[in-house]
Design a protein that fits this description.
40% strand, rod-shaped, alpha+beta, 4-stranded antiparallel β-sheet, 2 domains, 9 strands, single chain
């Protein structure tokens, strides 16, 4: 099974008023234009250029566009100019763009929901923080004031969000970190705060 491949479809076909370069017969040449495209799991992804062939019904000679003499090449280019790329050949690309937009929209909604939860943060809650690209840790809420929160940092870190559950019950620092609720909301919206776990 091919994951990525290419195919071609016939886009135009017509008789040309040129002599066959092989047998010199008149009115026997047919020109055909093919549109190539790249597919991914058989879903058309992107067009990949056009090609053409001439076929003589008299001597059965088939000639690709790069091997055609100048007069046949001119006929090929005229026929090619009449063809357009079918819009369905971009369907894979359109699907990928839709999936990316959907994913980004979901992430934004999750970040907004998390930011809203910062209004109800309580002592004992555990916040999941992203420190760097592959660096995560936990902060336990020690106390909540009217406009700020006191946090205890976990002594350990994880390279994944999933790995945070392994350090949840580990040692937390005794020194406290002070952070305002608006700062927590901003961290949630910016992706620095990735989750909250209630006790």
């Amino acid at each position: 099974m091919y994951i990525i491949g290419h195919k071609s479809i016939s886009q135009a076909k017509e008789m040309v008023q040129e002599k066959c370069p092989n047998c010199a017969s008149n009115h026997s040449l047919e020109m055909e234009v093919f549109q190539k495209y790249v597919h991914f799991f058989y879903i058309p992804y992107l067009p990949a250029g056009k090609t053409g062939v001439s076929y003589c019904s008299n001597c059965k000679q088939v000639m690709v566009d790069k091997d055609m003499p100048a007069n046949l090449k001119a006929a090929y280019h005229q026929l090619k100019a009449k063809t357009r790329i079918p819009i369905w050949m971009f369907s894979g690309l359109a699907l990928m763009i839709l999936l990316i937009v959907y994913q980004l929209n979901n992430e934004q909604r999750a970040q907004k929901a998390l930011a809203t939860q910062m209004d109800q943060v309580a002592a004992g809650d555990v916040l999941e923080l992203k420190l760097a690209k592959d660096n995560f840790t936990l902060y336990k809420v020690y106390r909540v004031n009217a406009d700020s929160v006191l946090l205890q940092a976990n002594e350990y870190q994880s390279t994944t969000v999933a790995g945070l559950k392994d350090i949840k019950d580990s040692l937390y620092a005794t020194n406290l970190r002070y952070i305002t609720k608006p700062e927590l909301k901003k961290m949630a919206m910016d992706g620095g705060l990735v989750g909250i776990e209630k006790p």
